[in-house]
Amino acid sequence: MRLQLLGSQSGRSCTVSRGQGPTEVIDNTRNPDFVRKFVLDFFFEEKQNLRFDVYNVDSRSCNISKHDFLGQTFCTLGEIIGSTGGRLERTLSGIPGKKCGVIILTAEELSNCRDIATMQLCANKLDKKDFFGKSDPFLVFYRSNEDGTFTICHKTEVIKNTLNPVWQSFTIPVRALCNGDYDRTVKVDVYDWDRDGSHDFIGEFTTSYRELSRGQNQFNVYEYAKKKKKKKEYAIKEKHQHYTTMSRLYIQCNPSQPTSLHYMSPYQMNAYAMALKAVGEIIQDYDSDKLFPAYGFGAKLPPDGKISHAFPLVRRTHDRTNSHLRNTSAQLAWTRTLPVIQACAAEITDGSQYFVLLMITDGVISDMVQTKEAVVNAASLPLSIIIVGVGPAEFDAMEELDGDEVRVSSRGRLAERDIVQFVPFRDYIDRSGNQVLSMARLAKDVLAEIPDQLLSFMKSRGIEPRPALSTSPLPELHRHI
């Protein structure tokens, strides 16, 4: 079986040119470990859809329809990056009634290192593995990951029938070998090639690019271990830049009528739903449990008509669950955001989690003075606030909360940092009525500042990323795709 992986990305150009880019073909294996990597530009504020197709290549034809389809999976780039250790495992599908296997996708932020390494390796007195000959040796290079596992980064050619091979020199970017960290562990395995793909292990050794580079104009000599050892844990100097994000969602909602902004049409989304979907589909990839507390604010609730500015959209009783979002007996009240911000701030204890508060309203804030003070106080917390105004109301006064040009202040105190992004949704609605395009424009604008806000808070407090959790190794040799 000869396997090949095709990757594609929709919506933005990358090295997988507008779409399809194949890996190399790996012969005779059901556990391929592909060498080719895809370099993608990552945009936190955009939903970058990916698709991976796996094929069994039976001929040299470039026409993919000539090959056997083995399965596919879909995900977003954010899902991979947001996964623990940047490692996402997905089940392949696409063939009814058949188990198609598992694909493992890993992502790592590339360093700015532009160094190129050129090296040539040789070996002496390797083990004889072939019954009627010597050995057909080749080398496999792996770079260590932040969770202690290894990812393949280079294979040499096979040298036939020799115990003293001299491989051709090759050139590799240093960031592909160790992501620019000269002291990161590099593992090299030596194999005897077999036609059926069951290559015999000869030995292994570990080194680093710093050590390899010392061999310039002279030889580095490594003794290789002849027995395959269990997976080791290696000390890695690169820090895993991953913080847990927790999202909080607050919505101003009232009973819906066909003429209302809150009307739930069976045929299309209203502005509230579009804003929720636009932002939620992106930030969910960075939330650990993907569960979002959702509250309404600014409504008179039954049975007593009491005004609440922070009430759960789902109310549980002894015998049933009621949704205030669909409760036609609720009445709209004025817009106050102070209780909302205070409720969210009360849940924050330290910087181990970063909170994103999304507020959607169709009314102008009536407690602006108190809200400004709450924003100034919240600027010292691990919190970002997104406010989306929907409908025709005049939101000019609310622009004051967005501190891009002038930092929010209250009672002579300036906010420690800019944490608020306010936008009126009407500025992003596509004139042709394309809701997908409208949502993409909104999400791109309101989420663009979140990564810098998160990092600025963590760095100002000296909070370092958590160590990556070790992942369970895959069977046999193969670790990553």
Describe the secondary-structure layout.
Blueprint (H helix, E strand, L loop, with lengths): L2 E7 L11 E2 L26 E8 L11 E9 H6 L4 E5 L10 E5 L9 E4 L17 E8 L5 E6 L14 E4 H5 L6 E8 L7 E9 H5 L30 E8 L19 H13 L10 E3 L2 E3 L4 E3 L2 E2 L1 E3 L4 E3 L7 E2 L5 H9 L6 E9 L6 H11 L4 E7 L19 E2 L2 E2 L5 E5 L10 H13 L2 H12 L20
Parallel strand pairs: 13-14, 13-21, 21-22, 22-25
Antiparallel strand pairs: 1-2, 1-3, 3-4, 5-6, 7-10, 8-9, 8-11, 11-12, 14-17, 15-16, 15-20, 18-19, 23-24
Helix pairs in contact: 4-7, 5-6
Number of strands: 25
Anisotropy-based shape:
elongated
CATH class of the largest domain: Alpha Beta
The name of the CATH topology of the largest domain is Rossmann fold
Sheet of most strands: 6 strands, mixed
- Number of helix segments? 8
Rounded to the nearest angstrom, the radius of gyration is 28 Å
Total domains? 3
- Beta content comes to 25-35%
Q: What is the residue-averaged pLDDT? A: 77
Pfam family, one: Copine
InterPro entries: C2_dom, C2_domain_sf, C2B_Copine, Copine, Copine_C, vWFA_dom_sf
Keywords: Calcium, Metal-binding, Repeat
GO biological process, one term: cellular response to calcium ion
